[in-house]
Amino acid sequence: MDRVTFKVNGVEYSVGCEVSSNVMLLDYIRGWLELKGTKYMCRQAGCGACVVSVRKQGALPYSINSCMTPITACHGLDITTIEEVGNRRKGYHPLQTTLAKYNGSQCGYCSPGWIMAMYSLLQNQKDMTMLDLEQSLASNICRCTGYRSILDAFKTFA
Amino acid sequence: MKSATSNVVHTARIVFGALSPSFVRATVTEEFLIGKKLFTNETLKSALQKLEKELVVVENPPEPSVEYRRKTALGLFYKGLLQLAPANVVDGRYRSGAINLHDSRPVSRAVQTFETNQTIWPVNQPIMQVDALLKTSGEAFFVDDLPKYLNEVFCALALSTVAVGDIVSIDASKALEYPGVIAFYTAKDIPGINSFILPLNFVFISSEEVFSSGSIQYYNQPIGVIVAETRAIAERAAKLVQATYKNIKDPVVDIKEAKDNPERTTLFAELNATDEGENVEEVIKGSNTIYGQYHFSTETLTTVIKPSEHGLDVYTSTHWTEGIQIMIAKALKMDQNRIDVHTRRVGGSFGIKLTRIIQGSIAAALVVTKLNRPCRFIQSLTTNMRALGKRLPCHSEFETGVDRSGKIQYLTLASYEDHGSIVNEQFNLLGLGVYNNAYDKSRWNFRTFSSTTDTASNTWARAPGTLENIAMAEFLMEQISCEMELDPLDVRLANLDSQYARDLKEMIDSIIIKSDYKNRRDMVTKFNIENRWKKRGLRFSFLRWTPIGGLNLYVNLSVYRGDGSVIITHGAAEMGQGINTKAVQVAAYILNIPIEKIKIKENNTVIAPNCNLSGGSVVNQNVIVGVRRACEQLLVRLQPVRDQMENPTWEELIIEAYNNNVDLKTHGFTKMTEEYTHTAYGVTLAEVEIDVLTGELEILRVDLCEDAGLSVSPEIDVGQVEGAFIMGMGYWTCENLVYSKTGELLTDRTWNYNVPLARDIPQDWRVYFRKNSFSEELIFGSKCIGEPPICMAVVIALAIREAIVSARLESGIPTKQWFREDGPYTVERSCLLTSTKTADFKFN
Does B100 contact chain A (CB < 8 Å)? Predict the structure, then answer.
């Protein structure tokens, strides 16, 4: 294997010796692909602003912190970022319109991370109760809203 | 543990984590238990003694203390046995010990209650933020989303490794040898003034160095900036910069050590009593200390600067573009008109991006002028936390004489604000208007002092100067009620200032009914009698808030003749508080056009020069007034044209006005001297439960009534209330800054500085806006909203105190005995404060 290959939003990419081993998936998404929708804060998998959805072949999607996943560890992954979930061109995803409608976004910086965490969760788990859902949302920090509006928005998907 | 039906232990495994690297298995206790009848008080007592003896717990700051981890290890052992024990063995009062508090948490529920007057929509209409979809889709622009520039460089601050001393020399050679490092700059490289702030208005009185010019005043003070080809290289290399120091001294990091030192403490203001009562039943003395809070904006301090034709194009996430422009100009000896500062939006600030961000922006601007290359300076979370100031710690001391009802007869109260390394931003001033909260101050002698400690210069943090004063007043009421054995609600009512009483009583009565207070008061008392290992508390906090000051803002409104669409720039920064949405609602109402027709553009120093900082909650009111003036000016200009037409559409009117040479760009200006005087009120009731064995906390229910006036945008203001309250809840419960003896901040990341998460909020949360409230017509009846609600979060600490007092009573400490607690009521502190004796761990 001379190249690490993966897909981002359906497009195949590969990296090799041109990237350093400390280039994280986050850096690749934002810096190489110029997809700036994915945000970041702590760079230590604590805040959830950088969450993206990944899927291994034949498996269900799940969330990862792109800030602590080296790009060279992404071989075979099918990665989905906030840009693919919904946008003004192809229309917004119900998660995006619902979070907006419930005012679950204030400064907006953490919002893509929340959407991606829920986006993965909804595909990963079926028939979630509101309690399951709330218990699954411990990986994202929001300093603005006090969380109530975010929980109310997302509980409509239970 | 395995046991037969006889409950005799066959084998046992007892495992602990987080005590010390060397201790995992409690083998002595395991061996002891084999062959014993497990669920007897006798076995338990002996096992706890064995366990206590064999536990190896070592200090590992900033992890909780040895004492707490030892206590909790024993508590968890007991809790585990209570969970294993047959129900008939465990006495009813002890059963609550078996419950894991957080596991018992149900789905959270919440209600928000407000009225909306459809006749004035879109003002007062509950709508989502105008750019909400851009934010939830990641399309909203933040500074670091600027595309990569060819040749751009990155920065990281090099920080001092002593708290107090003088720099002898700085050696950056190792850093400069690191591949990818381009340059290192220090104070000597700054051609102009080495300061990121000056006395630019009444709030500021000092200058503060960008890089230390020799004297070090706190641990991790910036001493220079490393420039590199990538962010990662810059951050790594910054740690390779080595400085040597002389005259190193031990730092003073606690306000309690600084307050009595005349070199560190000066009187800021003294406000004397005008009356004194004669019915002194009891004299009560007390003191309180509260500490810092990191802002934790999710976007860290970020600046991108590129060379421009005239000088610099600065993109930064500040809420004071003028401050950035002036201070870069002074530091780099450039004319202000060569520096254009742009802010589209701010990814959360809570105060840290007001003045502290100027420091990094100057560093980036220096780099750009030195290298003539674009610079992207994204400060790391750990640098932000270590190198920058936070909420001001505050110490207060009082003596009061009260009558039988707890009414104050005389009071002397002194407060000491900890400004960190330098007294600059004068938050004592902001406290002067609210130090008595809602209580009668005629008998209060109040003195407020400015103190310094050897910590980073403390700064704006949501409700600076006011939060601590309001908290002190609420603690005062609690202590009086505690020592006089009176109901804390009655004591508050007895001391209420008559000028606020009517408004507040209306809100208190409303909360008492809506929360079913009287019934729940009895239930909490009953719960505490019936349960040994879970305790509850139910407490009120009051709020009276009067804003001071106004802001210079330049509001511009342009209408396009092609389709009548409108753009506005308002000179203030959108940082999540929804100011753009409110501006659109006001403009749409006055112009009588759909909100979709109006867009708010970025704030920059070209279109909005000399604008004051978007600080304090008053920025909302200023923008409303400025937009109103610009819109009304436009309507005046349009009127003659309109009079010539018959019911024109907006689009027809605009094109006709254009054809008649009407100036379709208008301006609104608001002044610093213009104050929109009003008083905002609040009442909150909170019920909490703590686990006595671990100190864990659940907030069972909060009823919060906020006087938002006539809210221009109720959904957005609800968000302000909820967000502020949770930030305050974090301050009082889980956000604990730990410093080493050398003055180094040890809690510098998400792993050890704990902010509230989604399942920490009240299980049942009801927010009500006061009915029929109105400030004044000019500001559409609105009131300040961004800061006041955080001041009510002290209610969580007060409710936790009741739970702790109930647990202490079980340990023989009378409820009348006030205990003093400094800093947040963390799980550690709550657990230790219960003063629980291991001897009380029993089955029956």
Answer: no
Q: What is the residue extent of each domain of chain A?
A: 4-155
Residues of chain A with Cβ-Cβ distance to B758 below 8 Å are 134, 137-138, 140, 142, 147, 150-151
**Smallest Cα distance from A6 to chain B, Å:** 22
Per-residue pLDDT band for A53 (boundaries 50, 70, 90) equals very high
Question: Inter-chain contact B135–A44, Cβ cutoff 8 Å?
Answer: no
Q: Is B575 on the interface with A (CB under 8 A)?
A: yes
> Alpha-carbon distance B436 to B433, whole Å?
8
Question: What DSSP designation does B496 have?
Answer: B
Question: pLDDT exceeding 90 applies to what percent of chain B?
Answer: 97
Q: Would you give the end-to-end CA distance of chain B in angstroms? A: 21
Residue A98 has pLDDT above 70, yes or no: yes
The residue among B390, B394, B387, B218 whose CA lies nearest residue B737 is B390
pLDDT of B677: 84
What pLDDT, on the 0 to 100 scale, is given for residue B635?
98
Q: What pLDDT is attached to residue A21?
A: 87
- Please indicate whether, in this complex, the C-beta atoms of B107 and A155 are within 8 angstroms of each other: yes
Q: What integer pLDDT is reported at residue B4 of this predicted model? A: 56
B144 touches chain A (CB under 8 A): yes
**pLDDT at res. B5:** 67
Would you say domain A4-155 falls under CATH 3.20.20.70? Answer: no
Residue B668's alpha-carbon distances to B345, B374, B624, in angstroms, are: 21, 35, 10
Mutate to test the interface with A, among B127, B131, B136 (most CBs of A within 10 A): B136
Interface check B463 vs A, CB under 8 A: no
**What's the pLDDT at B674?**
87
Intervals of chain B under pLDDT 50? none
Cα distance between residue B202 and residue B193, in whole Å: 20
Residue B398, phi then psi, degrees to nearest 5: -145, 160
Contacts A–B by Cβ distance under 8 A: 191
Query: What span, in angstroms and rounded, lies between the C-alpha atoms of B609 and B552?
Result: 10
**Which residues of A are less than 8 Å from B295 in CB distance?**
143
Question: Which chain B residues in 297-356 lie under 8 Å from chain A, judged by CB atoms?
Answer: 297-300, 345-348, 350
Smallest Cβ–Cβ distance between B298 and the set A31, A88, A109 belongs to A109
Q: Is A103 exposed, middle or buried (0-12, 13-18, 19+ CB in 10 A)?
A: buried
Chain A hits for B755, Cβ within 8 Å:
141, 143
Q: Which domains, from first to last, does chain B contain?
A: 2-89 (3.30.390.50), 101-108+497-547+675-844 (3.30.365.10), 151-251+295-387 (3.90.1170.50), 253-281+393-492 (3.30.365.10), 553-670 (3.30.365.10)
| B contacts of A88 (beta carbons < 8 Å) | 133, 137, 139
Secondary structure (3-state) at B445: strand
pTM, two decimals, is 0.98
B residues 208-267 closer than 8 Å to A (CB):
232
DSSP E strand boundaries for chain A: 4-8, 11-15, 51-55, 62-65, 78-80
A25: CB partners within 8 A, 6+ apart:
A52, A64, A66, A67, A69, A70, A71, A74, A79
Contact between residue B267 and residue B365 where contact means Cβ atoms under 8 Å apart: no
What are the CB-based long-range contacts (under 8 Å, 24+) for B124-127? B124/B710, B124/B711, B124/B712, B124/B713, B124/B714, B124/B780, B125/B585, B125/B713, B125/B714, B126/B713, B126/B714, B126/B715, B127/B581, B127/B585, B127/B595, B127/B713, B127/B715, B127/B716
E strand or H helix that includes residue B313: strand B312-316
pLDDT tens profile B597-628: 999 999 999 999 999 999 878 899 999 999 99
Using the Cβ of B754 and the Cβ atoms of chain A, whether some distance falls under 8 Å is answered with no
